[in-house]
């Protein structure tokens, strides 16, 4: 019996949101996303897990909000950066690409009590073409648009620590409205 990836992600993230499973962390969520999408298990997800942990601890967001907000921002980056720049970004930070995958985003929609891609959340997160879409995605996750400005510096700092170069960071900052 093959279980859809979205169902697995939704289940794992649901555990992260319950007090009984408080030991389930954002790193565990990143590992689950990576393994569902054929990643290299913990090795590929460790950097992405570090990013999710940084967002959770610095911005006090839920695991769902960290995964969804990061996914929405990376989705916008994927749509706005040249193919070469996005490829460089995903090669620089192993596991990062799994956070922007459609499967992870539709799974998040299911987690939030809606049915995958047909849900408002899945729809908002799965089609981030501009900053208006990004703001809608954050709203669907229960965050106001001001949180985009709080996510951006944390993500940019983290990417810089992972070896992403200055010109690419500047491009990402421009895409996310964080300036340089």
TrEMBL record:
Superkingdom field: Bacteria
Q: Which Pfam families match?
A: DUF2780 (PF11075)
Any idea which UniProt keywords this protein has? Answer: Signal
Signal peptide positions on this chain: 1-22
Q: Which InterPro entries match?
A: DUF2780_VcgC/VcgE (IPR021302)
Q: What is this protein called?
A: DUF2780 domain-containing protein
Biological source species? Pseudomonas gingeri
């Amino acid at each position: 019996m093959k279980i859809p990836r979205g169902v697995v992600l939704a289940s794992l993230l649901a555990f992260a949101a319950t007090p009984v499973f408080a030991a389930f962390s954002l790193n565990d969520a990143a590992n689950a996303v990576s393994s569902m999408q054929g990643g290299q298990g913990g090795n590929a997800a460790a950097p992405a897990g570090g990013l999710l942990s940084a967002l959770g601890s610095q911005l006090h967001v839920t695991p769902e909000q960290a995964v969804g907000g990061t996914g929405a921002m990376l989705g916008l980056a994927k749509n706005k950066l040249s193919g070469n720049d996005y490829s460089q970004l995903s090669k620089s930070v192993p596991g990062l690409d799994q956070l922007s995958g459609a499967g992870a985003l539709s799974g998040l929609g299911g987690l939030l009590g809606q049915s995958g891609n047909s849900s408002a959340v899945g729809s908002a997160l799965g089609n981030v073409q501009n900053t208006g879409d990004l703001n809608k995605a954050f709203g669907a996750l229960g965050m106001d648009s001001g949180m985009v400005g709080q996510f951006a510096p944390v993500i940019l700092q983290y990417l810089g620590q992972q070896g992403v170069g200055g010109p690419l960071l500047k491009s990402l900052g421009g895409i996310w409205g964080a300036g340089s």
